[in-house]
Specification:
The structure holds two protein chains of two kinds. By secondary structure, chain A is mainly alpha-helical. Chain A has helices spanning 15-19, 34-66, 73-105, 120-125, 131-144, 147-162, 170-200, and strands spanning 7-8, 24-26, 30-33, 206-212, 215-217. Chain A contains seven helices and five strands, in the order βαββααααααββ. The two termini of chain A are 12 Å apart. Chain B has six helices and no strands. In chain B, helix 2 runs antiparallel to helix 4 and helix 2 (29-54) packs parallel to helix 5 (100-117). Chain B starts with a helix and ends with a helix. The chains are: A mainly alpha, B mainly alpha. At the A-B interface, helix 3, helix 5, helix 6 and helix 7 of A face helix 2, helix 4, helix 5 and helix 6 of B.
């Protein structure tokens, strides 16, 4: 019954369609809107994966440059690629966030709109109890998030450029670790507020993508 | 017994192999250029974020891509400045040993300022809101 990819106006609840079903179904149908899917890719695909990767980056940076463990070139190359992939994840997260998800988030509702479900920023700002999620959460997140890919690009560059010689530059390697910490902080702020914002005002709408189809029962 | 003792060294040795190439010794210049330019890029992002928030004409000027609004101009400009500064410093400092303490202090100050400038309550404080 829900197998078709249907487009419905932004803000229209999917529950309305479920209520209008005439056939009973068994088994669970599962669908996700296009905007939800892109938001998941931005937050869980890029952001959360980046956040998870930080522990490995710190271990690698500490072991190879601060603790002075002897690494062969293959190990060093692996960590170099690891840091490059982290920087790429950071760029993917901020670019998808700023140029795909954010325009949907800040969409301006036409005059007289009562249901603000398709206009997350307006929905948050319409309620004094949720306005802070925008004025503090989103306003901070949309800027600080960019520190992560900039810092991680620098970390990856310095690690690859200096290789084993990084251990000889004590102050430089400490600064690289500090940069990684700044990137972690920026990512944590962006990811934390991103998750909470999507909880209070989900970015939703566009065509429905059916992940699982509930079987019909006559 | 001897084999048992040698096994970890044979299979888990972390020593560099003899075939590893030994690169020429580097100065701290390229690293300093990368770190200082990233600090400048983040600082510019913070300044532009504040300017866009405080002055409507600046916000309009930064509205490079309408769907994203002034954020597009803030981030695009900051990235351009970061990459340009990095390019210039990397060329100038390629072989040089620079005053690391100066680079470190300036970078720390810029990152700290950048972090503050993007924090909305601090932005509001500066604007007297």
């Amino acid at each position: 019954m829900l197998a078709k990819a249907v487009s419905r106006p932004a803000g229209q609840s999917r529950h309305k369609i479920v209520i209008n079903q005439t056939k009973k179904t068994h088994g669970a149908g599962m669908e996700i809107s296009f905007r939800d899917a892109v938001t998941v890719l931005h937050g869980m695909g890029f952001g959360a994966l980046l956040l998870l990767a930080f522990s490995g980056a710190f271990v690698g940076l500490y072991s190879s440059s601060v603790a002075g463990h002897a690494w062969n070139q293959r190990d060093r190359r692996f960590v170099g690629w690891y840091l490059i992939v982290m920087a790429a994840l950071g760029w993917a997260a901020v670019l998808a966030g700023a140029y795909l998800v954010y325009p949907w988030y800040r969409a301006i509702a036409p005059a007289g709109t009562i249901d603000l479900a398709g206009y997350p920023q307006r929905m948050l700002m319409a309620n004094p109890l949720t306005i802070g999620w925008h004025s503090l959460g989103m306003e901070w997140k949309e800027h600080i998030a960019w520190f992560a890919p900039i810092a991680l690009t620098t970390v990856a560059y310095v690690f690859v450029k200096y290789g084993a010689q990084l251990a000889n530059f004590r102050s430089l390697r400490n600064t690289v670790l500090a940069l990684a910490a700044i990137a972690l902080f920026a990512t944590a702020v962006a990811a934390g507020f991103g998750a909470m914002l999507n909880k209070y005002a989900p970015v939703r709408g566009g065509a429905e993508i059916v992940l699982f189809k509930g079987a019909d029962r006559d | 017994m001897r084999l048992y003792a040698a096994a970890p060294k044979l299979f888990f040795s972390r020593e560099p192999t003899v075939t590893d190439p030994q690169p020429a010794a580097l100065s701290n210049g390229p690293g300093a250029a990368a770190i200082l330019s990233s600090a400048i890029g983040c600082f510019v992002l913070g300044i532009l974020a504040l300017a866009g928030d405080a002055f409507a004409p600046v916000a309009r000027a930064l509205n490079v891509w309408k769907p994203t609004g002034p954020l597009s101009g803030v981030t695009d400009l900051a990235i351009i400045v970061w990459l340009l500064v990095w390019l210039v410093l990397a060329r100038v400092w390629a072989q040089r040993t620079v005053n690391w303490n100066m680079v470190k202090c300036v970078s720390i100050a810029m990152f700290a300022a950048a972090l503050l400038l993007t924090f909305p309550p601090f932005m509001d404080l500066l604007q007297g809101k």
